[in-house]
Structures are given as structure tokens and as C-alpha cells.
Amino acid sequence: MKTRITQLLGIQYPIIQGGMAWVAEYHLASAVSLAGGLGIIGAGGAPADFVHEQIRRMKEAGDKPFGVNIMLMNPEAEAIARLVVTEGVKVVTTGAGNPAKYMSMWKEAGVKVIPVVASVAMAKMMERAGADAVVAEGTESGGHIGFATTMTLVPQVVDAVKIPVIAAGGIGDGRGLAAAMMLGAEAVQIGTRFVVAKESIVHENYKKKIIGAKDIDSEVTGMSHGHPVRQLRNSMTREYLKLEKAGASFEELEHLTLGALKKAVVEGDVVNGTLMAGQIAGLIQKEQTCREMIEEMMDQAKEAGKQFPLQ
Amino acid sequence: MLERIAEIIREQLNADGIAITMDTSFEKDLEADSLDLFELVMTLEDEYGVEIPSEELEQLTTVGAVVKYLQDKGVEE
After folding, report:
1. Among A31, A96, A270, A273, who pairs with A199 as Cys (CB 3.0-4.6 Å)?
2. pTM for this structure?
């Protein structure tokens, strides 16, 4: 399937893996890239040295295109922004902020820049600042989220900008991919489904929670201080929401979640850890290789397209 | 200029009847988030025919900062 995104990024399939902190390391990212999608190293809150090592490993794994996701609130965001240039990384996606100040440096180095946006105005600003594409991410996504849904956000962003749009949030199979394309997207970003990929280093307990999740297991914390985070409900979210309702301060709440994602991903603490996952977790039923996931999604999307000729 | 900007802000944030002064903070007083600011800046650009690069958004935390920014760009009323 050819779109402006597959051409821009030099990938076979219009599927990009989300830059999930702790999860999106080189095992997963290289598997996605080798299967014809775009694998992404998620810098999250990690130091630049760690990201450097991850990039080195990616290059060893093969010569397929890959990207780095920079979480702009990372204290070392600037060092990582420079690192992608010196390492010749071809694609950068950005989250949690406005990447405008790095844009000219990246453009000069020929890096393709794809900011994650949660509104039409932000998409327009990013286009003007020189972005090559945007990821329009709906509130169905896991992790830090905005408020507009994928169904409403994607067509509005598609209408507002000329650069290609990648849909994210709530897409977990080929039907979702086909639907996103019908909304005008030219690729999709998949997060939660890749968390349970065979190549993903995420702890078995975490994978089991996603595979066992139902549609209603998704919870949003942090609404009160303006930094909502979507995850699967557990003891931690119950405690968090109780405190939040009681008017706890941002610092008090932060204390609960400090290091909690690592606790879940690395140590498998699914009781007190943060189980970031999108609303689509309920649809995800099994562990597969990235290649199986991608090929199944493409077959299913083609099938969905045939079922709806819409004449 | 304050009056017109206040009008635009009220309209953008659906904040009818809210008092807006030079000291009004977008975040603290109006509970506007970064997405609201993107929206507001786009509207101000259309209204005043100036371009506000997005890397300069961080400094625009109060209504007064926006007024001063526009004045520095040569906007008079």
C-alpha cells in the first residue's frame, strides 16, 4: 500500500509503532522496522546516553528506516534532539510539547519531523513550523492524552493541513487501519498492540493484563492537574483517583506515579505500577510477532476495504 | 487593544462574562491549556495580520504579555 507517508519514510506498510517510554526499545522497534513498518525508539524520560546506545543497537539490527520519539519534557530533550542529528536518524516524532525550537536544526540535517498533535490549531502551527507530517492522536491512546477522539480529530486535521496525517489512538487491527484511512489518514500509529508483541521486552505480567483487559478497564488519571494519563485500572489508579477526588496536590499525586511505569514494564508490578495502554486493549487477544501483527492488519484492512465498496 | 483581545479570548475559551485584565494568567485564571493557546494565537494572527512563531508561545503566559508582544510587533490598536 502506497501513501505519502510510506513514500516519505521509505517503508513498506503504512504502520508506525508508537514511541512508548520504557517499551519502545530496540528489540521491539527493530522488529517493526524489519517487518516493513516504522519502528521507533521511545526516549521517554531516559538520558541521552541510553538513547544513544539504543540507536546504535537499531543500526546493528539492520538498515531499515527507524525513528526516535522525543518526549519534550525530558530534561535531556535538547541533548537528544542533537543526538538524532549527529547519529543521522531519519525520522523524529515528538510528544508532550512544542518542538518548534529544534525544527530548523532538524530540517537542515534532513530529519523528517512528525510532531504528535491533539488539536487542529496545533497541527496547523506545526505545519507552518516545517513539520513533514503530523500524528493526530485521539484520546483513546494510552499514556499522556488529549481530549478529542480519533474519529473526530483525524478528519478535522486532514482538512486543516496539506501535509500527510497519521492517525493514532484506538487502532488495534486492520479494521481500525481501514477506518483511519477512510477518515483521510495516510498511515496509523499503533502502540498498545505492539506492547504484547513477542519481541517486546515488556514483563509477562503486563502483557497478560493487556491481553486480559476488557473494554471498560481503561482509566484516566491526572485530569485535575491537566496532565491526563490513560492506563488500565488497578490498585494504583484506584488510590490515585481517590486522592484526586479528595483534592490532593499535584506533588502528592506525582509521588504515587514516580517510577510506576518502569515498575510495571520492567519489574512486572501490575498492582502498584502504571499499566499504560489505550482503550483498544480490550480488542487485543494474543501475543504475536510484529511481522504477524503487521501482515494480519494489512490483510484485514484490505478485506475491510472490499466489504465496503460504498458505491 | 486589551478590550478587543479580551473579547477574542472570551469567544475562544467560551468564557462569557469573565473579567480579563492585563494580569490575567491563561493557565491560572482561565484554565487554558497549551491547545487553547495554539487556538488563540491562530485567531490573533488572523485578527492582527502578524505571525507569532510557535517557539515564542512559551513567553505568552498572561494577557499583558500578549498585548506587549503585539505592540512590539507594531500593532497599534
Report:
1. A31
2. 0.91
Residues from A contacting B (CB-CB < 8 Å) are 97-98, 100-101, 118-119, 121-122, 124-126, 128-129, 146, 226
Q: So what's the ipTM on this one?
A: 0.75
The pLDDT tens digits for B2-14 are 889 999 999 888 8
Q: What is the largest CA-CA distance in chain B?
A: 31
Q: Output A294-298 pairs: Cβ under 8 A, ≥24 positions apart.
A: A294/A13, A294/A15, A294/A32, A294/A35, A294/A36, A294/A37, A295/A35, A296/A173, A296/A174, A297/A15, A297/A173, A297/A174, A297/A177, A297/A190, A298/A1, A298/A13, A298/A15, A298/A174, A298/A177
And the C-alpha cell for A132? 513533514
Flag if B35 and A146 touch (Cβ within 8 Å): yes
What is the end-to-end Cα distance of chain A in Å, rounded? 22
Torsion of CA A111, A94, B59, B53, to 10 degrees: 40
Residue type at A138 in one-letter notation: G
For residue A163, the SS3 value is coil
> Which among A15, A134, A2 is positioned nearest to A64, based on CA atoms?
A15
- Gap between the Cα atoms of A9 and A51, Å rounded: 21
